[in-house]
Design brief:
about 45% helix, alpha+beta, 4 strands, single chain, four-stranded mixed beta sheet
Length: about 160
């Protein structure tokens, strides 16, 4: 049985209900609840999404709409590390595309894929608001700006050395 099939742990269910109780409408806790699930399991499976929807009194389709709207919520498994390469106009102008090509070549994957060792997932993302330091990216929720192929190579080597 994979972790995606396991029921939510009782303490997590209690925490989600507590979050919902703090909101005028329980669905107001939907993003926080999904983030809890993702923090524990690494992503939000359909089974877990359904459980959270039940706890919040929402349909699974409504909650899936929330989950798929936010690009920091993952609805499919991702690697141990997630690189979100900004694809805003500023980043494109400042060299995002050659960086993406370099990164894909170095990792042996295309955007949206995960390396064979499950270490790194590469995802394009909308503007991350670091335009004055373009090209930019988020790596495991850490912002990196003024990215070069050299800094990218160093970062990838570091990621591969950390669990």
């Amino acid at each position: 049985m994979s972790t995606a099939d396991l029921p939510l742990p009782a303490p997590m269910r209690a925490e989600i209900l507590a979050l919902a109780a703090q909101e005028l409408h329980p669905r107001g806790a939907s993003v926080a609840a999904l983030r809890l699930v993702q923090a524990h399991f690494g992503w939000v499976s359909t089974a877990h999404l359904r459980e959270v929807a039940d706890l919040l009194g929402m349909s699974a389709d409504d909650l899936d709409g929330v989950a798929t709207y936010f690009n920091l919520l993952f609805r499919r498994p991702v690697g141990r590390h997630v690189i979100m390469l900004c694809d805003s106009v500023s980043c494109w102008i400042m060299g995002r595309e050659p960086l993406c090509v370099h990164l894909c070549r170095k990792l042996g994957i295309r955007p949206g894929e995960t390396t064979a060792d499950n270490a790194i997932t590469l995802l394009p993302t909308v503007c991350i608001g670091h335009c004055d330091h373009a090209p930019a990216m988020l790596v495991d929720n850490t912002l990196h700006g003024d990215v070069t192929t050299e800094s990218l190579d160093h970062l990838i080597d570091t990621l591969r050395d950390t669990p």
